[in-house]
Here is the input.
Amino acid sequence: MRALYTTDLSAASEAAIENETCHECLERIGIETIHLVTVVPSNIHAGMPGMDLEGRRQRALNRYQSVMENAGFAVETHVVRGTPHRRINGIAGAVGADLTIAGSRGKSPLENRVIGSTTRNLARTSVVPLLITRIERETDEPDLRHEHLFRRMLYATDFSKNAERAFEAFSSLRYAAESATLVHVESPKDTGVTADEADEPAARLDELAAQLEEWDIETEIDVRQGDPADEIIAAEDEFDATTILLGSRGRSRLRRLLLGSVSESVIARAAGNVYLVPPPRSA
Here is the structure.
């Protein structure tokens, strides 16, 4: 498997790239090749005296390349210029990436400002699964909030086609996951359902749980009522999840609207990592 690892060369990005436990997690899910990518924004002019942006960034990537190669990965580097999320998506498609990894700082004082614009745009437009790794804020030596990325998974499903597609990610995640919580949130509008209908979500979650148990993943189910995003975030805290796994929906023809409101809210508000699975490329 190939992963595209985006970096802005900040201290936060460096903390993630140099984390040995993180390397082991990626190796466990089958990542063999890593493409390190940094983008020089098109509004920064290379011709300014003393800038040499591409050269400085390439030298930084060379250092990161050595770290990744010492961890056992085959590594290629890319220094490109343009709109970050567009260039990142373009390279992901060109190299046939199976996963894009982007770092994001942790909690922000401003609501819905937890993730930066590049990460937010990647979440809305990525055509390959996107892993958003949460990194500590407001510290001179930042680190990952959860070094063991996939140890405790929280899978959120509305039983849609793309939620089913997200569940398929466990075929590789099972080699790194120790436990999983499967969550379905019922809307308050569903309070008038019959007893049989009320039991259906739990039964469907039990079927998924049985599959994970066969892979030696300790699994429990949780059916909740309320606002989906609120309940998913509450479940993340309650079960101390290291990563939330969920799918995005592709109902709109507009690329920027591919991400459903629930997914976007979860990505913005989650304390830990988020693994987002988009619709298939043909969609």
Summary: Confidence is low (pLDDT under 50) at residues 106-115, 250-259. Residues 2-135 form a domain with the Rossmann fold fold (CATH 3.40.50.620). The chain has ten helices and ten strands.
